[in-house]
Design brief:
The protein has 251 residues and is of the alpha/beta class. Helices cover 47% and strands 14% of the residues.
Length: 251
């Protein structure tokens, strides 16, 4: 129980990667604040499972972010995980989609971080983890806003790591490749139909084309990495961008 007594907020944690991180932190003894949308009954069950509280704050609304942070109280651990994606050629990219992706993936972490840091500095201990992406290190076409936001969060993380280097507060990125979640699984049938491919072809030749291991990253693997970054032994690990992408960005 290496995180006993620590209070953690994980954004976008009602499903997928964020939920896996929340579960991993809870298993280490942390008190967890969940954030995200979803079925009310399912969220209530998660709160009971993790002995957690939940904030439904819309992270595109500054007032709601500020209210969530005030209600969460002084944090020891902040995981900025919430994100969104949209695919389009740049000349057709809807401006409102650009604003939303930059807002959720980059601006919201700025606000949560600036509001969390004072209490962390006062305690002399804190952990800030930003879920970036393989697209924080490389790019793919038709994902201009996503690529920009993830490159941005990597740079933001390095900056705050340097600012906080002598305070006992660390800041790091986790950059996954394709992660096996219900969101990815749900894309497979449509891709099979659209491209006339088998399930195995979609997985190996489309989704995992850039991951040399030909294996999806599992959410629990990301949760385990997040726990390590929060432990006392990682106190000198800061400003790093941790790839967990099956070798994608090694090529």
């Amino acid at each position: 129980m290496g995180l006993e007594g620590k209070r953690a907020l994980v954004t976008g944690s009602t499903s997928g990667i964020g939920l896996a991180i929340a579960r991993a932190l809870h298993a280490e003894g942390a008190q967890v604040v969940l954030n995200g949308f979803g079925d009310e009954a399912e969220i209530a069950a998660l709160c009971e499972e993790l002995d957690a509280v939940h904030s439904a704050a819309n992270l595109l609304d500054l007032a709601e972010i500020e209210a969530m942070m005030a209600e969460a109280g002084p944090l020891d651990i902040l995981v900025n995980n919430a994100g969104m994606q949209f695919v389009s050629p740049v000349e057709d990219f809807p401006p409102e989609k650009w604003e939303a992706i930059i807002g959720l993936n980059l601006t919201a972490p700025f606000h949560t971080t600036r509001l969390a840091v004072p209490a962390m500095k006062q305690k002399g201990w804190g952990r800030i983890i930003n879920t970036a992406s393989a697209h924080s290190l490389t790019a793919s076409p038709f994902k201009s806003a996503y690529n920009a936001s993830k490159h941005g969060i990597a740079g933001f993380t390095k900056t705050i790591a340097l600012e906080l280097a002598q305070t006992g507060v660390t800041a790091n990125c986790i950059s996954p490749g394709y992660v096996w979640t219900s969101l990815i699984e749900g894309q497979i049938p449509d891709t099979m139909k659209a491209r006339g491919l088998t399930r195995e072809q979609v997985i190996n030749d489309v989704l995992l084309a850039k991951q040399p291991t030909k294996k999806f990253v599992q959410p629990e693997e990301i949760g385990a990495l997040a726990v390590f970054l929060c432990r006392q032994e990682a106190g000198n690990v800061t400003g790093a961008n941790w790839s967990i992408d099956g070798g994608w960005t090694a090529e």
